[in-house]
Amino acid sequence: MFRVGFGFDAHPFEEGKPLILAGVRVDFPKGLRGHSDGDVVLHSITDALLSAIGEQDIGQLFPDTDPRWKNADSAIFLKTALEKLHQKGYRIVNVDCTLVANQPKIAPIKERLIENLAKLLGVEREQVSLKGKRREGFCQEEGIACFCVVLVQRY
């Protein structure tokens, strides 16, 4: 049995925070505003995985009103989603993400992000796709949005 999950996350830029994308610290003068580390890639993948297996979403499992998650590493959220995925007898077939941002440019860091995602997800590099697109009028505030779709299969 195959299941598809979709995830989305977006955060505006914030001065004084590091920029974390796909679990990688990116050299950029601003980070993303969020209760946790603001990693839109890991947040959208986490939501997509949870969606695919019919679980509560990231906001329900890790509410931004809970001080435990203040500045938390988003890999914690992803790890929880992966545990739930495996407990229900599913494995990842593939993950496909699109980052929407004018800056930073994604192309120069794309392979680093994909390699780290594959490592975090416990899959082969070929099972992960990530691309960058410019905003071109989408979103009024400067920041980064990420759309993600996953395909999972019962084993």
TrEMBL record:
Cofactor(s) annotated in UniProt: a divalent metal cation
Keywords for the protein's UniProt record, in alphabetical order: Isoprene biosynthesis, Lyase, Metal-binding
Binding residues for a divalent metal cation: D9, H11, H43
EC number: 4.6.1.12
Catalyzed reactions per annotation: 4-CDP-2-C-methyl-D-erythritol 2-phosphate = 2-C-methyl-D-erythritol 2,4-cyclic diphosphate + CMP
Coiled coil: none
InterPro entries: MECDP_synthase, MECDP_synthase_CS, MECDP_synthase_sf
Keyword Metal-binding belongs to the record: yes
Record carries keyword Oxidoreductase: no
Gene3D superfamilies: 2-C-methyl-D-erythritol 2,4-cyclodiphosphate synthase
An example molecular function term from Gene Ontology annotations: 2-C-methyl-D-erythritol 2,4-cyclodiphosphate synthase activity
Pathway it works in: Isoprenoid biosynthesis; isopentenyl diphosphate biosynthesis via DXP pathway; isopentenyl diphosphate from 1-deoxy-D-xylulose 5-phosphate: step 4/6
Site (Transition state stabilizer): H35
Self-association and partners: Homotrimer.
Name listed for the protein in its UniProt record: 2-C-methyl-D-erythritol 2,4-cyclodiphosphate synthase
Record organism: Thermocrinis ruber
